[in-house]
Amino acid sequence: MNAKELVTVIENFDIEEIEIQRYGNGHINDTYVVSQNGVKMLLQRLNTNIFKNPEGVMENIVNVTEHLKKKIAANGGDPERETMTVINASDGKPYFITESGKFFRMYKFIDNNLSVDKAQSTEQMTSAAETLGKFYHMLDDFPAETLSVAIPKFHDTRNYYNRLMGAIENDVAGRKASVEKEIEFVKNHEFLADILNNGLADGSILLRVTHNDTKLNNILFDAPTGKGLCVIDLDTVMPGSVLYDFGDAMRFGAASGPEDEKDLDKIWFDLDMFDAFTKGFAAEMKETLVEGEIKNLVNSVKILTFECGMRFLEDHLNGDTYFKIHRENHNIDRARTQFKLVADMEAKTAEMEAIVSKYCK
Ligand code: ADP
Ligand code: GN1
Ligand code: MG
């Protein structure tokens, strides 16, 4: 993205004197902080190779954040800090498309926030889970049928399994021979691919409005108090299962190290973080969850971790076309941490189940 093009984008959001910097470490979109007279805004280029209906994504986000703002105000909260605020472009639309077709949107920057990849304490983890639980409660009465599907089959684990088998077959980047061990691991865990789909199909797991991308850095904390503040990165808000969110949050937040750690001896599943998150999640959600959801909380953590590992492995085999990479073999390093975590979760299943039973009585 060249500087001239960025200036044109910013002018189309009625902003003139600016400073602009790259920001954040997401794998999908390009994020910038723009400031004018000391007021910060967050500019993002949405990845339209991945989000094929970007207008639909923005409509979802506008509707969801308007709904949340009403709820937050009614609860006596601060609607400008506890959810995102979309800034419209000069033509009144919540996005701007450049001549070459690049899709941009702008948000108010939430000041005094803390954004972390790893929780600094178990208390922070509990608070993150409570923030997510409150997000669901505020969306309880959101009309789910109005949401466009941002990415079809986004957490359809079976679909990822089948796609991966296709990628292995095609081996377009010639990398298959170097990842036989990982392929073997996936094949031995095929049984994880249908559990959530089956539960949704037979009604034992409910379809709700969910976030679907609950990495810890998608929950902002209030810097002064350290408490959970706001759920961000709303691109994938769609009908889904809370188990997608619980599992994904623990895949990332209860990992002992970064998602791309090369030294697998440093990667294990941290039961203290799992305990802390489950505590906060249950405090908010235990009356809402049905039996089939509670029964699958532990499974969901294994499944979402397995799924993410398959997605990284597929991308490695396809020659790195989906997730941003910053070094050679980045995606396979990521896949390996995920599979190491799944194996460790399997070894710790009894402890994980005991934690769920303790909080979801
Ligand atoms: P990606 O989809 O690439 O992960 P995000 O929407 O998560 O992009 O944004 C990347 C990072 O930018 C976040 O992890 C967070 O630290 C920061 N961020 C996003 N939105 C805001 C906001 N409205 N105010 C302050 N920081 C934000
Ligand atoms: C992507 O955009 P970001 O970095 O928050 C991905 C998630 C993965 C995650 C793995 C739209 O999330 O599904 O779990 O990377 N988002 C999309 O770190 O594919
Ligand atoms: Mg993000």
Give a quick set of tags describing it.
three-stranded antiparallel beta sheet; 45% helix; 361 residues; Phosphorylase Kinase, domain 1; six-stranded antiparallel beta sheet; binds adenosine-5'-diphosphate; binds magnesium ion; 11 strands; globular; alpha+beta; binds 2-acetamido-2-deoxy-1-O-phosphono-alpha-D-glucopyranose; 12% strand; Aminoglycoside 3'-phosphotransferase, Chain: A, domain 2; 2 domains
How would you characterize the overall build of this protein?
This protein is α+β, with helices and mostly antiparallel strands. The chain has two domains: 3-111, Phosphorylase Kinase, domain 1 (2-Layer Sandwich); 122-360, Aminoglycoside phosphotransferase (APH), C-terminal lobe (Aminoglycoside 3'-phosphotransferase, Chain: A, domain 2, Alpha-Beta Complex), CATH 3.90.1200.10. The chain is 45% helix and 12% strand. It has helices at residues 3-11, 54-74, 122-139, 157-170, 180-188, 195-202, 242-253, 271-285, 291-295, 297-317, 330-347, 349-359; strands at residues 19-22, 30-36, 39-46, 86-87, 96-97, 103-108, 113-114, 208-210, 219-222, 228-231, 238-240. The strands form three sheets. Strands 1, 2, 3, 4, 5 and 6 form a six-stranded antiparallel beta sheet that branches. Strands 7-9-10 form a three-stranded antiparallel beta sheet. It has a two-stranded antiparallel sheet with strand order 8-11. A hairpin with a 5-residue loop joins strand 5 and strand 6 (103-108). Helix 7 packs across helix 10 (297-317) and helix 10 (297-317) runs antiparallel to helix 11. The longest helix has 21 residues, at 54-74. It binds adenosine-5'-diphosphate, 2-acetamido-2-deoxy-1-O-phosphono-alpha-D-glucopyranose and magnesium ion (MG). Adenosine-5'-diphosphate binds at residues 23-24, 26, 28-29, 31, 42, 84, 107, 109-110, 113, 115, 217-218, 232-233.
